[in-house]
Amino acid sequence: MYTLFPSIKLQISSQNCAFLTSTILLNILIFLFLNRPTPPRPLPSTQFEFPDDCEFGKVYVYDLPPILNKDLLQSCNNSAEFWSSRCNDLSNGGFGPHATGLEHIVPQNLTPAWYWTDLYAGEVIYHKRILNYKCRTLNQDQATAFYIPFYVGLSIGKYLWLNHTANDIDSHSLAMLKWVKNQDPWKKRNGSHHFIMLGRLTWDFRRITPDSDNEWGTSLLNMPLMKKVLRLTPERNVWDEMEISVPYPNPFHPRSVSDIHQWQSVLRSKNRSNLFCFVGGARKYIKHDFRDLVLTYCKNESDSCRVVDCSVFPCYEGANATIATFLDSDFCLQPKGDGFTRRATFDCMLAGAIPVFFWKGSFENQYQWHLPTNSESYSVFIDNKDVRNDSTIIRRVLEKYNRDEVKKMRETIIDFMPKFLIATSDANLGSTKDAFDIAIEGVLRKFKQQNEDALKNN
Ligand SMILES: *[C@@H]1O[C@H](CO)[C@@H](O)[C@H](O)[C@H]1NC(C)=O
Ligand SMILES: *[C@@H]1O[C@H](CO)[C@@H](O)[C@H](O)[C@H]1NC(C)=O
Ligand SMILES: *[C@@H]1O[C@H](CO)[C@@H](O)[C@H](O)[C@H]1NC(C)=O
Ligand SMILES: *[C@@H]1O[C@H](CO)[C@@H](O)[C@H](O)[C@H]1NC(C)=O
Ligand SMILES: *[C@@H]1O[C@H](CO)[C@@H](O)[C@H](O)[C@H]1NC(C)=O
Ligand SMILES: *[C@@H]1O[C@H](CO)[C@@H](O)[C@H](O)[C@H]1NC(C)=O
Ligand SMILES: *[C@@H]1O[C@H](CO)[C@@H](O)[C@H](O)[C@H]1NC(C)=O
User: Fold this and answer.
1) Is residue 77 lining ligand 1, measured as CB closer than 6 Å?
2) Quick one: what percent of the chain has pLDDT higher than 70?
3) For 353, which of 305, 332, 375, 452 could close a Cys bridge (C-beta 3.0–4.6 Å)?
4) pTM score of the predicted model
5) What is the DSSP code string of 342-401?
6) Is 403 in the pocket of ligand 2 (CB under 6 A)?
7) CA-to-CA distance for 294 and 277, rounded, in angstroms?
8) Which are the contacts of 13, defined by CB distance < 8 A and separation ≥ 6?
9) Are 415 and 390 in contact (CB under 8 A)?
């Protein structure tokens, strides 16, 4: 992953004081907010009536107190916080700033569909999309699923690297549960048929010790009220049945089916000059860092491997170079990052390159609704232990694939590509389903099945 919010490392201690003050203020605000009378629900402005298209039912989207979503976005504007870079990252409905420097990479008429989208922007993007979803209902009694548009990743993002207390980092999560448990649909179902999007990897929401100030993350997912709430996340805990992984957001947000088709044909006709490539940074502070090994190996094999070294070149600023690199390679090396999965895997496939994994956890039991179960049809697996023993195995394995085999795998990726794209919220994709459509339809399908199973067992 190459956008780890570089600005966060700065200025922490000098701002602790302001930070603590604002935390206390925030808690007071949450308290005040939750204890004020609920405003009347706004009247529906549009009718969402597509009965024939919604065979699995409809979604009701809670109108949460803004402190749990919109205000978290707005607070990116608060110059008292070190956080201001997030404003740009989350602009344009979560897509981020319009991409630049694509003149020689993407056909000109497609460039407006490209953004420098942050890998953790899913909460904002899914919220915007679902408000415009064809199977959304404004009537709680007609809903099969209830969406809680809480920006929990944003709410903890600013605490993760700072000295904080368990209470700070959990404050918004606790406020959300306090609010939602008093809603009628929740009370009727005790939390089941509810779902949430986690913008970050599941590991950030699983602090084990309730009151530990030093352990990583919030304990949201270990709070008893969350037990029945289904979660979408870019990396799931494979032991947790209540979690579904959805593709990381990537830079291409098609406005129509023809945008998709045009990009697919660009990929088919592209001539690639490198057998493989690696985009990423080494982590010098980790002993025997596998990424460092891959990076060094790629530099050694410069006649067949193209490298973008993110520890030298700021990949989050020059994302065009990474796209150009993937577009010019048959395979891309995908060692694990913060988690087993990597956003770069999707950037790679978006450019029609074939991912090479070194850990089974990078693909097994992830993205089950979005990617083919037969991983060999679109990716290569080389065990990290074999690479550590002799890194030249990478080239030897990849060279064994002949032109036709490479082409076939690329074709597979190009075919399923719409399933990991996220279209604009006003796009009409006809019968094509993007990552969002598949995720929400999957949730509805799952809840419908639960209802049928419950009926059978009664
Ligand atoms: C940030 O503040 C400025 C000026 O107050 C405002 O125009 C802008 O819309 C704000 N941006 C966000 C993302 O809230
Ligand atoms: C990326 O964008 C920069 C700035 O626009 C440009 O100088 C550079 O050539 C671009 N890189 C590629 C690979 O197109
Ligand atoms: C974190 O804050 C606590 C309480 O303010 C303080 O006792 C502790 O020394 C701080 N830890 C670090 C690493 O700054
Ligand atoms: C509601 O769910 C919680 C957590 O799973 C459980 O402890 C509680 O017993 C449930 N209550 C009812 C009425 O089902
Ligand atoms: C790719 O290479 C083939 C054969 O060398 C050539 O005919 C074709 O025009 C090239 N395509 C592009 C897009 O450059
Ligand atoms: C890179 O090349 C050097 C010199 O040939 C060699 O000693 C080293 O083992 C190679 N490293 C990797 C990771 O391939
Ligand atoms: C390690 O690499 C060497 C050289 O490629 C090979 O002969 C040997 O079988 C490998 N060992 C293991 C345990 O894979």
Assistant:
1) yes
2) 86
3) 332
4) 0.86
5) -HHHHHHHHTTPEEEESSGGGTTTSSTTTS-S-GGGT-EE--HHHHHH-TTHHHHHHHTS
6) no
7) 10
8) none
9) no
Cα distance between residue 441 and residue 264, in whole Å: 24
C-alpha dihedral sign at 414, 117, 230, 429: negative
Which protein residue's CA is at the shortest distance from atom 14 of ligand 5? 271
Yes or no: say if 410 and 352 are a contact pair by the CB < 8 Å rule. Answer: yes
Which two three-digit tokens encode residue 221?
């997912």
21 lines ligand 6 (CB under 6 A): no
- CA 307 to ligand 7 centroid distance, Å: 26
Place of tokens 């030093």: 214
Q: Which ligand is nearest to the CA of 74?
A: 1
Ligand 1 site, residue 258, Cβ cutoff 6 A = no
Exposure letters 49-64 (e unless 16+ CB within 10 A, then b):
eeeeebebbbbbbbeb
**Structure token digits, residue 191:** 């939390």
Output Rg (C-alpha) for the chain, integer angstroms.
22
- Are 33 and 174 contacting, i.e. CB atoms less than 8 angstroms apart? no
Handedness of CA 215, 217, 219, 222 (dihedral sign): negative
Pull the structure tokens for residue 37.
Answer: 């009378």
C-alpha pair distances (Å), 275 with each of 301, 331, 352: 10, 6, 13
Single-letter code of the amino acid located at 245: S
> Ligand 4: which residue has its CA nearest to atom 14?
190
- Tally the residues of the chain: 458
Residue 360 CB-half CA count within 13 A: 5
- Please give the C-alpha separations between residue 442 and each of 3, 75, 146, 254, in angstroms, as whole numbers: 29, 33, 13, 21
What atom in ligand 6 is closest to the CA of residue 300?
1
Q: What is the mean pLDDT of residues 31-47?
A: 43
How far apart are alpha carbons 124 and 86 in whole angstroms? 12
Token couple for 398: 């990849």
| Eight-state DSSP code of residue 98 | B
* Token pair belonging to 421: 């794209």
Instruction: At 367, give phi and psi (nearest 5°).
Output: 50, 40
pLDDT tens, residue by residue, 258-272: 999 999 999 999 999
Residue list, ligand 5 pocket, CB within 6 Å: 269, 271
Q: What is the position in ligand 6's atom list of the atom closest to the CA of 294?
A: 13
Only one residue has tokens 């448990």, namely 181
How far is ligand 1, taken at its centre, from the CA of residue 87, in Å? 9
Provide the pLDDT for residue 52. Answer: 54
Give the residue, by CA position, lying nearest to ligand 4 atom 12: 190
Question: In whole numbers, what is the pLDDT of the chain averaged over residues?
Answer: 87
